[in-house]
């Protein structure tokens, strides 16, 4: 085979593109042409101040010529527009184009791009200037076009607007242009209202150095709330409200630069604004004269503004408020009044029409203090709304400061950034190449190809401080994928796939350099200006992980950095070590200068601990590596993330690594055990374990500190000598000595952690109690009122109600006010009051109420007395009472209630405020983290939370230093609950390296996802059985860093999930005497009986008794769940009718209905346990699929050698050497993960084994992936072979590293293959009569294919393997499956790189091969570096039946055909 040197990948793609261009010259002429012109004629022209005219393509109505490039300028009278009537056009579709520009230059907005053929069409400009461009390629020609143009004047309707990206697009950019139009986001996209909370800035620079005329075409803003501000070299114009209906008004600037700023608030929006601008003076460089000059009526016409509308505010209590505010004081969105989710309530619009309960607008039913609403947060039921009193509303004159220049930190460089509508040109760093670029530069260029093609770009020069200063190039806008990030490189080239490219340049605060220059040109242009031959340059290499978007080093501390990750490394335990910070794609350390406990506390809390134990200076835990990111850190101590703290700036320091700071964090907590909420044995959590406190010297001072830490105001007594029983575990604290002003017991002096001379008979207990008196809580006695006046000292923004000392739906009523729980007096308490309490707690109604401390006497304040409700209030806080803390009662009068369904909620957590008592398992490999916004790594993890899009969630970070298999666990509290409950939560499992998300209830696995579920949040509900258990979320790291897993919005409530309700019981029930009164699933188990290891009758254990499952309605899904629960990968078949004999005892399950995704049979729908109409003649049986595993035992020549043993029926056995050959050895070594076999040995070379001889006369082809796929005499059939004939093998190489192999069946992901226009697919392709209907591997899996609809005739798609680890032998074997079916199929080519720079082509197949998968096996005679598959659509394709697919790519060491060679 001839081997030729080939260029790198990007050159190959260009070569393919060149081949396509070559093939395009050969396009067949589809129609006979009546006439052909031998030579082109002149085109282009200028039509000035004409009221009408005609423009035609050259030679119309005969064919135009190849290579045409025509321009026509049309100008009509001032104040008019151009109307174009395209009467006829036939233009080669997709290759030749007519462009219509709304203005006099190629940088003007494009009104239309016309190709192909169609009906007559009318186009309108927005000004009196239009530019037409007609461009043809080098091959087929057509009839062309004929259009007429007319001068038209407005009659009140606005002009056609240039398109924008919709209402959410808020550009902040610099524009170099002498004319154009600008609008509020959304206005040009169908006249949509702009959105809330916008801050848009445009800086517009006239390249001709003259001033601007600005004229308004439309203007409608929320009055005195949203503003358009125009800054003109010190002159400030501001506009709001609504313009009158006259045509427009005008501003003339004083200079060539203006800044336009648009702001909107969080409230009402409006239609927006639309303005035009142009150079006010004519220069000889401009293509057209100004259209709005001093002779026009524009100057001096003031913008008449309507008076402001009525403000959105309330008077009195807001009972008659009918405004549109729908946000609470703490920023929660209101729940719709006609919705019962997430909060059940009585105020539905149909029941209370008098209150105006529209949509989710704030109202005041029940006459509260001010308008309020239920919130959409499951954890916050009711809050007052963020709506103002009308008496507080004023209209001050708006005061604005001019927004900073686009690059104010970079000096006054006008060349730093901008928006360019150019098909060719160049950009450079500020000051290049004379002065060098400035420090702290942040420059953004947006380059748009007028032809809507992609760009070729060349770094003609690049010299920067590499590692600190960068050029980042995005394929599209800033939200598009990064092509790469570059610093100091030789001249190189790159390409975009989009018609827009964004270039961002950032520099830090230290060293600068000469800078860089980039040339660019549209790939549409045959001859690029300035010309640069891209094939002469090497591809550019990104120098940093281009998934990162952090600001550059040296960014001032004021720059917003939403989140940074921290780690402790090189410590003595999980809670100690050197502090490292992940910033700008790199881990670095923190200098100890100025570091204190406030800084330490912030870092430790971010890591999931309760605080810091100590910090260590001078590299106590070894010196770090990489940058020193922070110096003079100055946290307040209450920050939730290190990025919120003040500091000198990222990367700014005067330190060395010998000053790196280290930490010791603590997860110290305390609790009361075996007592009640306010008394019990004192236990402390330290080093990941609960333990006790010795009573030596522990007195009232120490008890006071502990009680205050628990949230009480003090202690009544300490109780020595295990008063509340002896504890277990370590005795953590002894000889505790507190001063009395500590906020945590952790701050008191002790012997040493775990050092004591006690036993558990000396465990200390405490009694906490500190009821506040009325005089302490209320400075004045307020009159009876619905709510305490807002100027009082009582606060109830977090008002809550609970039931204590009872059960799930009954108990003493306690309310949370001013940060303290207290009780309610029973005076005048009746059914209306009981109803309000129960409905506020989410129950349907009350059953009864009880006074006289029926549920025990409370402690603390008695918050409410003489409560009087109507029964319609949404919350007890809205009822009449004497006043907060004003009472004449004692706790012997505490009132309680019993409520009526629905069942209670045990936990509802959205993680927005805290972790809701979820705790991370500190003994695991790493911790779950609470986070807002996106995770640090790209292509994995969520970008926002599930609840609101701007809140918090919990997640695991899979990037370094995490390793495959590392586990993190998040524990809920232990719930005092039994029986069926519904667990509901949202999960986000996205990335190509996912490990697993598992959910356990106690020790039972109830949910698992171990593959990517896409970049989205998923909601799930699961019926679980509680037995005083806790919920455990377990995250596992996969094979790479794209494996982040997240959860949010966890809800657990008693009863079955409504969406997973059990099916109805059979119509013929079992007699009631046979149905257990109580079902205990604590010892639940499952087994197969009277069959074998993997087959038999299915039996389950319930209530301590084994029983069977009825086969009624069972099928594949049920068999699959049963086999997976038993530990098998899947089922093989199932049998009805007691196939393996009838069982005995109970028939536990009937009418079993599974989806196939459940983890246990218990998770499927079924009739009640023990309820059925079956007999044992209908017992269900299954046959499960075994996973055949091999291993090497007793090898003496390394881990890759040994006796071959295989596990079958759960028992390890050997393989007889009869008929064993090289192909068999290859399959075994490949199954073990080695690239190939080295040799094999007969006659128990590594000693005889024991157990069964499972296989004899093994016959493999060498291409199987498992010995199970090979033929043999049968499992356990060995023809008298004995263990002295056990086969042994020696495998070649080492176990393959995941991702470093060519092998891929595409079942889980793309195995690291890079693809361009190849698609991973399952099932049939998009169109009929082409492509496979299923994959090659299993018939139900995945494969890669090229979609014809995405490729033009002659276009190419490619699939490039990862680089294979070096060390492969000179001769190897490549095998793959391919499918080429359809009338338009082109070519499939395979290229192999020999490990250096040379590529060769061992495979080429063309044309329709039929609707069948083929397997190709190729001997390769050089080491393999990479493999690339190129699919090319036929150049003669006329339809969409040209799909090409590949699957099951395998690479073997050694030759393909091994025969049946023997060894020793």
Automatic annotation (TrEMBL):
Binds to extracellular matrix proteins. Binds to pathogen-associated molecular patterns (PAMPs) present on the cell walls of Gram-positive and Gram-negative bacteria and fungi, behaving as a pattern recognition receptor (PRR). Induces bacterial and fungal aggregation and subsequent inhibition of PAMP-induced cytokine release. Does not possess intrinsic bactericidal activity. May play a role in the innate defense and homeostasis of certain epithelial surfaces. Coiled coil: none annotated. The keyword DNA repair does not apply. The keyword ATP-binding does not apply. Residues 566-666, 670-769, 801-900, 1086-1185, 1190-1292 form the SRCR domain. Residues 312-390 form the Kringle domain. Interacts with LGALS1 and laminin. Belongs to the DMBT1 family. This is Soluble scavenger receptor cysteine-rich domain-containing protein SSC5D. Residues 1-21 form the signal peptide. InterPro entries: ConA-like_dom_sf (IPR013320), CUB_dom (IPR000859), Kringle (IPR000001), Kringle-like (IPR013806), Kringle_CS (IPR018056), Kringle_sf (IPR038178), MAM_dom (IPR000998), Sperma_CUB_dom_sf (IPR035914). One of its GO terms (cellular component) is extracellular region. Residues 907-1059, 1302-1458 form the MAM domain. CDD domains: CUB (cd00041), KR (cd00108), MAM (cd06263).
């Amino acid at each position: 085979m001839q081997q030729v040197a080939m260029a790198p990948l990007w050159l190959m793609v260009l070569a393919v593109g060149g081949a396509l261009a070559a093939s395009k010259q050969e396009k067949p002429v589809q129609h006979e042409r009546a006439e052909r012109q031998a030579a082109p004629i002149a085109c282009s022209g200028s039509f000035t101040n004409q009221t009408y005219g005609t423009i035609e393509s050259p030679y119309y109505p005969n064919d135009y010529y190849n290579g045409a490039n025509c321009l026509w300028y049309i100008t009509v009278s001032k104040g008019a527009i151009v109307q174009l009537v395209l009467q006829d056009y036939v233009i080669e579709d997709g290759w030749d184009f007519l462009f219509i520009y709304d203005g006099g230059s190629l940088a003007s907005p494009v009104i239309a791009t016309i190709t192909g053929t169609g009906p007559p069409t009318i186009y309108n400009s927005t000004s009196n200037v239009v530019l037409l461009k007609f461009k043809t390629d080098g091959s087929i020609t057509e009839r062309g076009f004929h259009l007429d143009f007319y001068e038209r004047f407005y009659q009140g309707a606005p002009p056609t607007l240039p398109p924008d990206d919709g209402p959410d697009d808020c550009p902040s950019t610099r524009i170099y242009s002498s004319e154009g139009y600008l609008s509020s986001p959304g206005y040009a996209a169908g006249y949509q209202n702009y959105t809330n909370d916008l801050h848009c800035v445009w800086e517009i620079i006239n390249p001709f150095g003259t001033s601007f005329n600005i004229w308004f075409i439309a203007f409608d803003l929320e009055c005195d709330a949203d503003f358009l501000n125009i800054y003109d070299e010190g002159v400030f114009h501001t506009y709001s409200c609504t313009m009158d209906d006259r045509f427009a008004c005008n501003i003339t600037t004083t200079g060539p630069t203006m800044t336009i700023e648009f702001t909107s608030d969080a409230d009402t929006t409006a239609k927006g604004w639309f303005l035009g601008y142009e150079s006010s003076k004519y220069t000889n460089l401009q293509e057209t004269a100004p259209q709005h000059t001093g002779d026009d009526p524009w100057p001096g016409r003031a913008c008449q503004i309507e008076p402001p509308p009525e403000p959105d505010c309330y008077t009195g209590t807001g009972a008659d408020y009918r405004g549109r505010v729908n946000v609470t004081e703490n920023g929660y969105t209101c729940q719709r009044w006609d919705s019962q989710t997430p909060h059940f309530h009585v105020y539905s619009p149909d029941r209370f029409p008098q209150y105006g309960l529209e949509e989710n607008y704030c109202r005041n039913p029940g006459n509260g203090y001010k308008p309020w609403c239920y919130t959409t947060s499951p954890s916050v039921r009711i809050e007052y709304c963020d709506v103002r009193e009308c008496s507080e509303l004023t209209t001050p004159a708006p005061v604005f400061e001019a927004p900073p220049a686009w690059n104010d930190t970079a000096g006054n460089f006008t060349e730093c950034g901008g928006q360019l509508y150019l098909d060719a040109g160049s950009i450079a760093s500020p000051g290049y190449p004379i002065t060098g670029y400035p420090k702290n530069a942040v420059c953004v260029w947006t380059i748009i190809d007028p032809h809507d093609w992609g760009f070729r770009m060349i770094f003609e020069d690049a010299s920067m401080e590499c590692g600190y200063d960068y050029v980042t190039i995005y394929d599209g806008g800033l939200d598009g994928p990064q092509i790469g990030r570059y610093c100091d490189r030789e001249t190189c080239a790159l390409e975009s796939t989009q018609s827009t490219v964004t270039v961002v340049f950032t520099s830090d605060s230290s060293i600068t350099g000469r800078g860089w220059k980039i040339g660019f040109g549209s790939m549409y242009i045959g001859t690029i200006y300035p010309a640069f031959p891209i094939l002469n340059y090497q591809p550019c290499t990104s120098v940093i992980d281009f998934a990162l978007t952090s600001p550059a080093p040296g960014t001032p501390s004021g720059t917003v950095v939403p989140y940074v990750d921290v780690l402790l490394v090189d410590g003595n335990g999980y809670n100690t070590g050197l502090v490292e910070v992940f910033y700008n794609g790199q881990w670095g350390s923190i200098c100890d200068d100025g570091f204190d406990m406030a800084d330490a506390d912030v870092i430790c809390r971010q890591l999931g601990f309760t605080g810091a134990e100590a910090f260590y200076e001078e590299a106590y835990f070894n010196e770090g590596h990489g940058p020193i990111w922070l110096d003079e850190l100055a946290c307040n101590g209450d920050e939730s993330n290190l990025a919120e703290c003040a500091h000198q700036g990222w990367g700014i320091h005067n330190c060395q690594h010998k000053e790196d700071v280290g930490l010791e964090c603590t997860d110290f907590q305390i609790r009361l055990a075996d007592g009640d909420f306010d008394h019990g044995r004192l236990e402390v959590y330290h080093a990941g374990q609960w333990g006790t406190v010795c009573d030596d010297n522990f007195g009232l001072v120490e008890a006071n500190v502990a009680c205050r830490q628990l949230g009480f105001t003090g202690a009544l007594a300490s109780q020595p000598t295990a008063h509340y029983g002896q504890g277990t575990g370590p005795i953590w604290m002894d000889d505790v000595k507190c001063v009395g002003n500590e906020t945590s017991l952790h701050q008191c002096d002790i012997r040493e952690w775990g050092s004591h001379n006690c036993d558990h008979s000396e465990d200390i207990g405490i009694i906490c109690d500190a009821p506040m008196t009325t005089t302490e809580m209320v400075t004045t006695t307020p009159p009876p009122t619905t709510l305490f006046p807002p100027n009082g000292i009582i606060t109830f923004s977090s008002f809550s109600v609970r039931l204590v000392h009872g059960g799930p739906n009954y108990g003493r009523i306690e309310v949370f006010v001013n940060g303290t729980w207290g009780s309610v007096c029973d005076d005048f308490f009746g059914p209306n009051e009981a109803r309000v309490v129960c409905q506020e707690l989410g129950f349907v109604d009350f059953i009864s109420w009880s006074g006289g401390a029926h549920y025990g006497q409370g402690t603390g304040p008695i918050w409410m007395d003489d409560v009087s409700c109507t029964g319609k209030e949404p919350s007890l806080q809205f009822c009449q009472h004497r006043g907060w803390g004003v009472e004449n009662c004692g706790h012997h009068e505490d009132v309680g209630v019993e409520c009526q369904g629905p069942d209670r909620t045990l936990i509802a957590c959205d993680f927005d405020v805290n972790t809701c008592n979820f705790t991370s398992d500190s003994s695991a490999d790493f911790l779950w983290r609470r986070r807002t916004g996106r995770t640090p790594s790209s292509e994995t993890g969520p970008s926002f939370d599930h609840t609101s899009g701007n809140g918090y969630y919990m997640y695991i970070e899979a990037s370094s230093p995490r390793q495959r298999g590392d586990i993190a666990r998040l524990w809920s509290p232990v719930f005092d609950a039994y029986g069926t409950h519904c667990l509901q939560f949202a999960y986000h499992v996205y990335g190509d390296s996912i490990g697993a998300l598992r959910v356990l209830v106690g020790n039972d696995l109830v949910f698992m996802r171990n593959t990517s579920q896409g970049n989205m949040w998923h909601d799930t509900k699961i019926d679980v059985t509680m037995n005083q258990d806790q919920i455990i979320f377990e995250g596992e790291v996969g094979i790479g860093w794209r494996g982040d897993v997240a959860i949010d919005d966890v809800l657990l409530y008693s009863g079955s999930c409504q969406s997973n309700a059990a099916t109805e019981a059979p119509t013929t029930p079992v007699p009631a005497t046979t149905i257990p009164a109580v079902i205990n699933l604590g010892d639940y188990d499952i087994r197969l009986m009277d069959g074998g290891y993997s087959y038999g009758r299915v039996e389950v254990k319930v209530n301590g008794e084994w029983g069977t499952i009825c086969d009624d309605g069972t099928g594949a899904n049920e068999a699959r769940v049963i086999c997976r629960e038993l530990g098998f990968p899947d089922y093989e078949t199932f049998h009805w009718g007691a196939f393996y004999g009838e069982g005995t005892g109970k028939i536990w399950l009937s009418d079993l209905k599974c989806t196939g995704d459940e983890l246990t049979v218990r998770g499927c729908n079924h009739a009640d346990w023990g309820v059925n109409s079956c007999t044992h003649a209908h017992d269900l049986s299954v046959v499960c699929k075994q996973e055949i595993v091999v291993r090497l035992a007793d090898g003496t020549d390394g881990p890759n050698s040994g006796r071959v043993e295989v596990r079958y029926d759960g028992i390890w056995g050997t393989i007889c050497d009869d008929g064993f050959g090289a192909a068999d050895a290859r399959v075994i070594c490949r199954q073990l993960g080695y690239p190939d076999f080295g040799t094999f040995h007969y006659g128990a070379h590594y000693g005889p084994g024991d157990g069964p001889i499972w296989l004899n006369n093994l016959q493999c082809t060498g291409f199987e992936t498992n010995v199970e796929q090979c033929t043999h005499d049968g499992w356990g059939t060995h023809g008298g072979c004995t263990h002295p004939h056990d086969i042994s093998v020696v495998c070649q190489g080492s176990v393959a590293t995941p991702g470093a192999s060519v092998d891929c069946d595409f079942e889980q992901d793309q195995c690291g293959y890079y693809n361009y226009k190849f698609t991973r697919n399952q099932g049939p392709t998009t169109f009929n009569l082409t492509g496979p209907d299923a994959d090659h591997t299993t018939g139900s899996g995945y494969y890669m294919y090229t979609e014809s609809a995405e490729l033009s005739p002659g276009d190419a798609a490619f699939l490039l393997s990862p680089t294979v680890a070096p060390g492969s032998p000179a001769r190897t074997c490549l095998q793959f499956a391919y499918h080429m079916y359809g009338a338009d199929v082109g070519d499939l080519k395979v290229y192999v790189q020999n490990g250096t720079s040379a590529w060769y082509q061992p495979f080429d197949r063309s044309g329709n091969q039929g609707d069948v998968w083929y397997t190709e096996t190729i001997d390769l005679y050089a080491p393999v570096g990479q493999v690339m598959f190129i699919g090319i659509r036929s150049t003669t394709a006329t339809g969409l039946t040209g799909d090409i697919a590949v699957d099951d790519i395998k690479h073997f060491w050694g030759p393909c055909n091994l025969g049946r060679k023997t060894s020793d």
